[in-house]
Amino acid sequence: MTIETDIPSLSGLEYIPYINESGQLPEQLQGKIGVYAIFNREQILQFVGYSRDVYLSLKQHLVRQPQSCYWVKVKTIERPSRTVLENIERAWIAENGSIPLGNGDNKDKWTQPIDAKAVMKPEEQANYENPIHDEIARIKIIKNVARRVEAEILGVLEVRGLQMQIRFNPKLKEEGLLDLK
After folding, report:
1. Which helix (H) or strand (E) holds 135?
2. Beta-strand (E) ranges in 2-43?
3. Please, what are the domains in the chain?
4. pTM for this one?
């Protein structure tokens, strides 16, 4: 058993498939506190983070960045300690030799709800900005954009073989945001 202050090298940890052969995320990580590193298909580091529930965080990252989540490496700890988690996160980023894309300028894409307004098609944008529409009509338009983006994400995950239920928060769709419930 290692003590909480031991920082394992990232390269020494085993790659875990993000989506296993049963179409599930690594269920052994449910409710686990830890630091995780997410890799793309070519096993290039994309993001390093920490969480009080690694499983839920991995699920969030998968819907936000499905094309970048193929492998994960994890170090769990028994007792929550932000200092220990941050030290491991920093050590792994340093070991990588450069800041992963998801920890740099693209961090919001990994850590914040998906903004459907940012991916509106020109016709959706024009319809949304049409001055004849009142607030209720705009909410309906943005909700439909959010539903389209949600369907696209779910389609990508289905192709990837994901078998688990993904539910987005319906209240946030009115604001054009997608986040898991």
Report:
1. helix 135-159
2. 16-17, 33-39
3. 10-111 (3.40.1440.10), 114-178 (no CATH)
4. 0.92
